[in-house]
Amino acid sequence: MFSQVIKSVMDFYQPSCIVLQCGADSLGSDRLGCFNLSIKGHGECVKIVKNYGLPTLVLGGGGYTKEILQQDVSTKPLLKQYLDNIRGTVHEILKNLVSSPSVQMQDVPSDLLSLENTEELDPDIRNHQDENDKRVEANNEFYDGEKDNDKDTDGFVDV
């Protein structure tokens, strides 16, 4: 089932890379999940995706504790008819899409580029030269003291 659905999705979307979410909610004993996979089945899904040869980032889940995951969870039986229905629904949805979606390149508004709250200086107020120098270079940018490693030593280094 997974290989058929993922093949349809890959053929339609034609991704250049894949982010695969592999949280515990797809495992059989997770009461929050619905896929009822064994650990081996989970690994097979990862293997199928990796066989496409695309750069793949595999992410895991988290936040599960023994109190949340109980062993006596009743599971919904996964019948062939149920799986065929899911497969058909996915194929139908993909068939009705016009083309592979993409993201347009757009300019980012300048107000979103700066994450800092910087106040603009008043152009009518003249600053002292020291204030201007502080804005141009950091205090540690050009250290010019006795312990300066870049200071000219006429070819000799004190050890």
Topology:
Layout: H1 2-13, E1 18-22, H2 39-50, E2 56-60, H3 80-96, H4 110-113, H5 129-136
Parallel strand pairs: 1-2
Helix pairs in contact: 1-3
N-to-C CA distance? 72 Å
Poorly predicted sequence stretches spanning 5 or more consecutive residues:
none
Overall helicity: 25-40%
Number of helices: 5
Topology as H/E string?
HEHEHHH
Largest sheet: 2 strands, parallel
Structural class label: mainly alpha
Order of adjacent strands in the largest pleated sheet: 1-2
Estimate the mean pLDDT confidence: 71
Total beta-strand segments: 2
Radius of gyration: 30 Å
Shape: elongated
Q: How much of the polypeptide forms β-strand, as a percent range?
A: 5-15%
Task: Record keyword descriptors for this entry.
33% helix; mainly alpha; 5 helices; 159 residues; EC 3.5.1.98; two-stranded parallel ribbon
Could you please describe the fold and organization of this structure?
With 159 residues, the protein is mostly helical. Helices cover 33% and strands 6% of the residues. The longest helix is centred in the middle third of the chain and has 17 residues, at 80-96.
In short, what is this structure?
One of its GO terms (molecular function) is histone deacetylase activity, hydrolytic mechanism. The chain is mainly α and 159 residues long. Helix content is 33%, strand content 6%.
